[in-house]
């Protein structure tokens, strides 16, 4: 009895420690790993607050994720009172973490009726097990949301299937609203993460009940059938809402467009997926570490425990499906289907970029943590642990519980060894101290620095394309890149390697030379006298002002040379075929546009001097006309874009006959689609 009491007190102590370490991680520790994906919730919250729209039309979502259920909603209410900085991110993370642990407490009721074993589940998951677990559950909270929503859905479904009287309607409505919201957010993710596993669990449960009833229709199956109808109707409504909202905002498809791998790729991904699962458990030894040391012995023990846990997952799943308790069967079947589905997708498709197995393993986080809860229930299901397998399971789980959050490679352990340096916070302070308030930088720095500066130094994300900075619309707003977004000096924040990719002569011909350069470590902030968005091509997708393209010494072309004709600069091709001008590779929204080319043909060209056209990156020719007559002329091409088009070019091509000169092109928007 004394041993049991001591174990309970120890469990409470470990839970308290993990909760304290989690709080420290959210406030201080996560700053070290904080990045622009994590900052997206702050930036989206600000966009919602500034525009007054729940789904801002200028924001660019990714893979169809509308973020209907996400952490930005915990930030928006506070923007009237506090600066939009890391403190609000930590607050959002704290609220999300509470919901995650609440969902674990509720869903663990399906696994075991014992409050102490459920508390063990909460303590284990509060410790996050690893760097990947901490990042995805509590730091970025990307897959923590998916995990908690899966737990809530399982709990609601169990309560619905077991309900009587008015409870049927209450829990049925809870399921319907839950599924409608997650389907509204992203139907594809909802199907994979919640609905297919739940359909599978309900079917498995129905088969077990049918077998027990001698394959005759059992009245208990009526409730399961109604549950499936609730799921389908909620999915249908969510899909309609998703399509309606997505048509009015920006979206970039990436991982959602999956492709099958080759057989060789499948075999490679199989082993990398197993490695990813071990990374989530935090049991992969540090490369180069000493084996013959206390840490080395601990890593060996943790690796063996992790491998054992992976073996025990199918054992626990089989146990759960065979058990007589319907709620346990539901949880076990859902977990097994979910884990099998995501293991299959990660192993056989391009959804996960396996060049970084630890990072790609994030897709497995929800189903793997559900599986860990199931192993906890199985391991402690025997009062005296008479079975060797269960005794081993208890030992493995206790070891992970006691060691994970304080292990040196775990980010929670930072609280025990002191704070690490936060380079991006130092970068933000450098910008603030020099009065740099608005600028542009590459993705992984931009959003994070904006948040670290409490939005006092706004850095908008760009990429370097064709030697020039171009807006990067991944989780950003088109508003940021319009000339009117900022009045005053602006800066380019680039690493030394990134700066080498810039065509500085071409850039300076458009926006002038930097008036000052501020250096910080391997980075430099290049300060310009005005907002560079005013001079750079293709930064305004709506073309609120005409875009004028003029010949320059470093302009985009593959033939001709810059000449001076009566005081005007032109690109001239004499007997040369090729492009006198192409680019600027811009993205335009749907609408009616007109490109006016200022060209001149000199001499005789029976078959024409060349062609002017409008072309886009998806290999579509939107308009084209030949340059047939001699003399200077303006050729206007009007064209309609029915949808947003990327990498649009206005081109001047010489046929090589006679002399063709190009003086410039004006691209403007002339109307909306009727």
Offer a quick outline of the entry:
Helix content is 48%, strand content 19%. It contains 20 helices and 19 strands.
Radius of gyration: 30 Å
pLDDT < 50 runs, ≥5 residues: none
Quote the beta fraction.
15-25%
Largest sheet: 6 strands, mixed
Structural class: alpha+beta
Number of strands: 19
The level of helicity is 40-55%
Average pLDDT: 90
Instruction: Please report the number of helical segments.
Output: 20
Topology:
Elements: H1 2-27, H2 36-51, E1 60-62, H3 86-111, H4 115-126, H5 131-139, H6 142-162, H7 167-185, H8 187-212, H9 220-246, E2 250-252, H10 263-281, H11 294-322, H12 326-348, H13 357-360, H14 365-379, H15 388-403, H16 414-417, H17 423-433, E3 438-442, H18 443-452, E4 458-465, E5 468-471, E6 490-495, H19 496-500, H20 504-511, E7 516-520, E8 523-528, E9 547-549, E10 561-565, E11 568-574, E12 577-581, E13 584-588, E14 591-602, E15 610-616, E16 620-627, E17 631-641, E18 645-655, E19 659-671
Parallel strand pairs: 1-2, 3-4, 3-6
Antiparallel strand pairs: 4-5, 6-8, 7-8, 9-19, 10-11, 11-19, 12-18, 13-18, 14-17, 14-19, 15-16, 15-18
């Amino acid at each position: 009895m004394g041993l049991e009491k001591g174990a309970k007190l120890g469990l409470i102590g470990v839970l308290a420690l993990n909760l304290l370490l989690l709080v420290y991680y959210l406030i201080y520790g996560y700053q070290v790993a904080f990045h622009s994906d994590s900052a997206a919730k702050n930036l989206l919250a600000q966009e919602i607050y500034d525009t007054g729209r729940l789904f801002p039309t200028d924001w660019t979502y990714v893979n169809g994720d509308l973020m209907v259920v996400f952490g930005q909603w915990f930030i928006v209410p506070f923007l009237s009172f506090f600066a939009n900085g890391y403190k609000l991110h930590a607050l959002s993370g704290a609220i999300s973490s509470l919901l995650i642990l609440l969902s674990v407490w509720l869903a663990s009721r399906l696994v075991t009726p014992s409050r102490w074993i459920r508390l063990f589940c909460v303590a284990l998951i509060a410790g996050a097990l690893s760097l990947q677990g901490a990042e995805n559950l509590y730091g970025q909270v990307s897959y923590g949301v998916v995990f908690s929503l899966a737990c809530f859905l399982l709990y609601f479904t169990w309560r619905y299937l077991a309900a009587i009287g008015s409870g049927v309607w209450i829990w049925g409505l809870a399921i319907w609203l839950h599924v409608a919201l997650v389907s509204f957010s992203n139907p594809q993710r909802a199907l994979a993460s919640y609905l297919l596993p739940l359909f599978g669990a309900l079917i498995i449960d129905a088969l077990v009940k049918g077998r027990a009833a001698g394959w005759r229709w059992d009245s208990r199956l009526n409730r399961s059938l109604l549950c499936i109808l609730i799921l389908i109707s909620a999915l249908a409504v969510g899909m309609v809402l998703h399509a309606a909202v997505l048509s009015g905002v920006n979206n970039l498809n990436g991982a959602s467009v999956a492709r099958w791998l080759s057989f060789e790729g499948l075999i490679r991904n199989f082993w990398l997926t197993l490695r990813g699962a071990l990374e989530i458990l935090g049991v992969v030894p540090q490369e180069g570490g000493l084996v013959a040391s206390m840490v080395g012995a601990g890593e060996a023990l943790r690796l063996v425990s992790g491998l054992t846990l992976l073996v025990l997952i199918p054992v626990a799943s089989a146990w759960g499906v065979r058990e007589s308790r319907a709620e346990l069967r539901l949880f076990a079947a859902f977990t097994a289907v979910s884990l099998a589905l995501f293991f299959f997708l990660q192993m056989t498709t391009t959804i996960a970029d396996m060049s970084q197995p630890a990072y790609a393993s994030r897709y497995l986080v929800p189903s793997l943590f559900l599986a860990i809860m199931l192993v906890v229930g199985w391991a402690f299901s025997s009062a005296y642990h008479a079975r060797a397998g269960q005794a081993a399971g208890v030992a493995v789980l206790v070891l992970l519980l006691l060691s994970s959050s304080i292990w040196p490679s775990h980010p929670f352990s930072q609280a025990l060894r002191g704070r690490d340096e936060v380079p991006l916070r130092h970068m933000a302070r450098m910008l603030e101290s020099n009065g740099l308030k608005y600028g542009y930088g590459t993705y992984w720095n931009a959003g994070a620095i904006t948040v670290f500066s409490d939005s006092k130094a706004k850095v908008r994300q760009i990429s370097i394309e064709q030697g020039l900075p171009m807006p990067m619309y991944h989780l950003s707003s088109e508003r940021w890149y319009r000339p009117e977004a900022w009045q005053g000096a602006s800066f380019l924040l680039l690493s030394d390697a990134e700066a080498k990719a810039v065509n500085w002569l071409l850039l300076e011909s458009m926006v002038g030379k930097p008036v000052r350069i501020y250096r910080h470590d391997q980075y430099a902030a290049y300060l310009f006298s005005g907002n560079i968005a005013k001079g750079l091509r293709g930064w305004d997708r709506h073309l609120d002002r005409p875009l004028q393209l003029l010949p320059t010494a470093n302009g985009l072309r593959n033939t001709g040379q810059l000449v001076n004709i009566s005081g005007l600069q032109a690109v001239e091709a004499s007997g040369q075929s090729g492009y006198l001008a192409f680019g600027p590779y811009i993205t335009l929204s749907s609408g009616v546009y007109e490109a006016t080319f200022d060209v001149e043909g000199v001499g005789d060209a029976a078959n024409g001097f060349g062609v002017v056209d409008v072309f886009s990156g998806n290999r579509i020719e939107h308009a084209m006309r030949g340059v047939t007559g001699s003399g200077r002329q303006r050729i206007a091409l009007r064209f309609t874009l029915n949808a947003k088009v990327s990498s649009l070019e206005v081109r001047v091509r010489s046929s090589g006959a006679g002399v063709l000169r190009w003086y410039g092109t004006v691209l403007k928007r002339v109307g909306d689609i009727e």
